[in-house]
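Researcher: Here's a chain I'd like modeled. Treat it as a single chain, no partners, no ligands.
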Amino acid sequence: MQEFDHIEALWAKHTVDVKISADDMLKQAKKEVNGMRTKSLLNMGVMVLSAAAMVMLWLFYDVQTWTTHAGISIIIMAIAVYTIILYNNYSIISNSDFTVNPNEFISSLRLYQIKRLALYNKLYWFYAIALSLGTILYFVEILDHMSLWAQIIALTISFGWMIFCSTLVRKAVIKRDKERIALLIEKFERISGQFHEH
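Model: Modeled as a single isolated chain. Structure tokens:
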């Protein structure tokens, strides 16, 4: 009989541990979602600052050619469109709460994952092409005032950076985002299952 009491006590302790781990898992998952929200806000902030810097450059630099005006306009429009897309993605995960409606929240995470993949696949190329075109048009006037070596270095660094971001960085971000969001969805599904059991 003493062994049975001991087993029952262990079982009761195990049940409590499961409940605590579900609560801890919920706190951790919510913290990760808040981190994603914060990162999205920071990304949008950087985009707004970039657009503001281009506007300041446009206002205070004595632009002589139509190509520079066109280049800066294209860059600002590309940044604005990308910022709106980032905001739309942010609003998907900022408007729902797991504790209020778990199924709706998990659905919004799935939608967010799909939108993020679209952002880094199709929409990214629109952004990269628009930035490249804007930069080329902007550089027409700027490069005219530089020596041949300075022109080569400026073009190599600018387009090398864009190629680096479009290939290695983009692929790494896609992979990390996909895994992170998939793991979050899995966590919230497990948490939802555990809360339904209790």
